[in-house]
Write a structure and sequence with these properties.
The chain is of the alpha+beta class. It contains 11 helices and 10 strands. The protein has a 4-stranded mixed sheet. It has a 4-stranded antiparallel sheet with strand order 2-3-7-6, covered by helices on one side. A two-stranded antiparallel ribbon has the order 9-10. Helix 5 runs antiparallel to helix 7. Its cofactor is FAD. It catalyses: a 2,3-saturated acyl-CoA + A = a 2,3-dehydroacyl-CoA + AH2. One of its GO terms (molecular function) is acyl-CoA dehydrogenase activity.
Length: 379
Amino acid sequence: MNYELTSEQQMIRSLMRDFAEGEVAPGADERDRSKRFPKDIFQKMSNLKLMGLPFPEEYGGAGADTISFAIAVEELSRVCASTGITYSAHISLGCAPLYLFGTKEQKEKYLVPLCEGKTLGAFGLTEPNAGSDAGGTKTRAVKKGDEWVISGSKCFITNASYAKYLALTAVTGQSGDRKEITAFIVPTDAPGFQVLDHYEKLGLHSSNTTELVLEDVHVPEENILGERGQGFKQFLITLDGGRIGIGAMAVGIAQGAYELALKYAKERKQFGQSLSKFQAIQHKLADMHMKIELARTYVYKAAWLKDQGKRFTKEASICKLFASEVAMEVANQAVQIHGGWGYMHDYKVERYFRDAKLTEIGEGTSEIQRNIIAREIGC
């Protein structure tokens, strides 16, 4: 068992560390205050050929692996979780369904522009009454001639304001209590399609979180993604990969908060010595470091299994669940180590604390992850 990163993965880490510190970190606090979306950052990432990182070169990607993707998300989230989640959702939720289930023609038409950074990827699953119970989808698509007419709404959708099209689920039939759910590729500028950006969020202020409203939106038959009736299954597969992204994001948040806490503890003096000399603070920092290392290792394990073509549903849920709870714990302790200053915006750790909470909710709550793990172990 070899835990050493490959030369390619080390190169990605070095590139992303330099990019995150040089391009992303300087404006992170200002963007958090102003809620400005970092469009310029993603244009620069596009210029670096990062927007299709784990997808084949034939579709405009870089041909990297899932571990490299996790590294990229972690490094972005270490300085700005809003940028991290935007990138993670673009890759794992926007691009991945097209790559996994799209026809060659659909990949050439829709995946290539995503990988080239000409548009951002988004994914429409959650609804006002279908969150953890995604099978409760109420958005409907009715066949009329050679078209489908879609009506309904989606909520908490990342990146949709900057997406030219996205995949979303709709009910296309019903047998008794069982719904037939199908995935469609829908242009966001289609008549009857509205993208509403009006949420006031706890954190991740410079990421784009939207509501989608569809009123008799017409799409052709060729815009079905995968097979009719397989949409729910396809999106569950997609979420497995997305959980690796959220796990990596959580590790990045935790790492960033820990580094700030360690730096502050070394610099801040109380009772004639630095905070880092007090055993109570040392134990906090030791626990933070230990749990981050464990979380990162399990994120990499889930990513490795995915790259090997092995089953990784359980491991994706474990890495997402554990890393998200570590992120919340580490961010909380980072604020505590900073004392009163930790409550103030200028010391950054309060931003990490606010941003971390989403990782326990997005891509399936902690409770849902425990349900999945219990199912996978045979309960």
